[in-house]
Specification:
Elements (H helix, E strand, L loop, with lengths): L5 H34 L1 E7 L9 H7 L2 E7 L2 H10 L7 E2 L3 H9 L3 E2 L29 E13 L13 H4 L8 E3 L3 H13 L7 H15 L2 E4 L4 H6 L5 E5 H8 L5 E4 L5 E8 L1 E2 L5 H11 L2 H11 L2 E2 L19 H4 L2 E3 L6 H12 L1
Parallel strand pairs: 1-2, 1-3, 6-7, 10-13
Antiparallel strand pairs: 4-11, 5-8, 5-9, 5-10, 5-12
Length: 357
């Protein structure tokens, strides 16, 4: 009988094991590469036309951190994604101010470690310490915009009309067709300011008044839209549109007859901020990305491409007609309202149903 020595057996076993592992690595290399890649990646959920993947290539190459960018269309969608499961896999999100307040109250975002932030002194002071996050413990403002009126001066004889919400709420002032918001939240709260001179909780009588005004307005509405206000105005379809300052800026650059008005009754602002979901455990990857994203040269690239109003002070070639609306000063914000959580989602839904009926 022939016996194999233990040393010879071990050599053969090692050879077999080596080739076995070589085959495994070959067959599953892609899978394990993806696994390790995911370990050095973050998932970002933001508004469209804010972040561009092409501007993140340098960061990914410098750090080895892959940034997966996902987009949402409204804050309600953001809430659904975060509330659906604690394992939603998002590491950085961009809620609007009123949404950020609710996320804080529900414990869905966590405090910012300000000791890891290198750009704090570059942020516009007037965008900090607002009602939704005093002290900015949870949020970092990234950009802001104003809600007002876009007007086509050709319709008004080449002159600016009176800056008033009557242009979209009073049939005596309204053109034959207008454009307004599809989102019932700003539409309702702006109507409340116009009717009652305040932004506060609504009683049943006030809700009925708002419904009546919006139903009258509906007779003149050419389109309800949150994303095409500037095109509606530039095309000549309507001479007055409710919309966002940043959107109107895009067409004001090309058309001298387009202007933006802040109504005398008061305008509204939105501050969109970056926040870290409580479910995320990738702080070591998130903070390097935040510090990169808020670098002035990087912000400048986004401002040049998307023409939004940044929370970081950068150079921007704004139309002189728009200059007074592009700097977030304390004086400006002393006259500006926010879409605070003063009207419940139930009442908003009731108003929406009544308007559509």
């Amino acid at each position: 009988m022939k016996y194999v020595s233990s040393s010879s057996f071990m050599v053969r076993a090692c050879i077999v094991f080596f080739w076995f592992m070589s085959i495994v690595v070959f067959l599953y290399s892609g899978k394990y590469a993806d696994f390790f890649k995911r370990g050095r990646s973050i998932n970002v959920l933001v508004w469209g036309q804010v972040l561009d993947k092409e501007f993140l290539v340098d960061f990914e190459q410098e750090t080895g951190i892959q940034v997966n960018v996902n987009y949402f269309e409204n804050n309600e969608e953001l809430f659904v994604k975060l509330r659906a499961t604690q394992n939603h896999d998002y590491d950085l999100i961009m809620p609007s101010d009123w949404a950020a307040q609710l996320l804080i109250q529900e414990g869905l975002i966590k405090k910012i470690d300000q000791t890891k932030i290198t750009f704090w002194n570059d942020l516009q002071p007037a965008l900090l310490n607002h009602y939704f996050d005093p002290g900015n413990e949870y949020t970092l403002p990234y950009y802001w915009t104003l809600y007002g009126l876009g007007v086509n001066t050709d319709y008004f004889g080449g002159k600016l009309p009176p800056a008033t919400w009557k242009l979209v709420f009073d049939l005596a002032y309204m053109p034959k067709c207008i454009g307004t918001f599809e989102d019932i939240r700003p539409l309702t709260i702006i109507a409340a300011l116009y009717l009652f001179g305040r932004v506060d909780a609504l009683n049943a009588t006030e809700v009925d008044c708002i419904i009546a005004v919006l139903r009258e307005q509906k007779k003149r509405v050419e389109m309800y839209t949150d994303n095409r206000a500037e095109y509606l105005l530039a095309s000549g379809a309507t001479p007055v549109v409710m919309g966002l300052s940043g959107d109107f800026l895009k067409v004001m650059r090309r058309f001298d007859n387009i202007s933006f008005l802040i109504p005398q009754e008061g305008a509204f602002a939105i501050i969109d901020s970056l926040a870290i979901p409580s479910a995320s455990h990738k702080d070591d990857l998130i903070y390097p990305f935040l510090n990169y994203l808020f670098r002035k040269d990087i912000v400048q690239q986004y401002v040049d491409k998307f023409e939004f109003f940044s929370a970081v002070k950068v150079d921007a070639d704004y139309d002189e007609r728009f200059a007074q609306f592009t700097e977030p000063t304390f004086e400006l914000f002393s006259k500006i309202h926010f879409f605070k959580n003063v009207v419940s989602s139930t009442i908003l839904n009731d108003i929406l149903i009544a308007l559509k009926s």
